[in-house]
Amino acid sequence: KAGVTQTPRYLIKTRGQQVTLSCSPISGHRSVSWYQQTPGQGLQFLFEYFSETQRNKGNFPGRFSGRQFSNSRSEMNVSTLELGDSALYLCASSLDYATDTQYFGPGTRLTVL
Amino acid sequence: KNEVEQSPQNLTAQEGEFITINCSYSVGISALHWLQQHPGGGIVSLFMLSSGKKKHGRLIATINIQEKHSSLHITASHPRDSAVYICAVRPNTGNQFYFGTGTSLTVIP
After folding, report:
1. Do B44 and A42 touch (CB under 8 A)?
2. Residue A40: pLDDT above 90?
3. Which residues of chain B make contact with A100, given a CB cutoff of 8 A?
């Protein structure tokens, strides 16, 4: 079974632009979560989706948004990029939310110049 | 305020040593996760615990819900165990994840 895939793997943007990252979960998994990892703050939870509904949201500004499609694929969007948004963005999928082991994708490395 | 505290932050061990990494948390939880991250970024979920103890190969994870504490043990450590180990908790209210800052383990041959 294929693992979690994320595209693109690397991305360079400039301040003020917006970006969309994509995550394809393991086949059959209905829950997708997104995380931001930076050297200063470590791993932080962004949001979690299950069956196209956002179930939980972390403490990030409204510039960070996401959605999940009927095939469980998920996208996250960051608008009006700031230098501090440079990070590794990870997504993880699981069969259900809150109760199951999460399987992580390789991440998208976003650099904001 | 950190909901999850890990210790030690850094750990160097000789191959074959028994290793313990500790995690303390301050919130009521529905589950605690131990994650492993190798250089390059890939994260693997090692254990998900809500009570007791779990074992997988040379790795053992324990949790004491009353004391809000968990430990990850590695027996007979090997250089391939070198990685960052991260503790994460899912609170039983709110349901988002809180992460520890990680323990960087280096095992020397």
Report:
1. no
2. no
3. 48
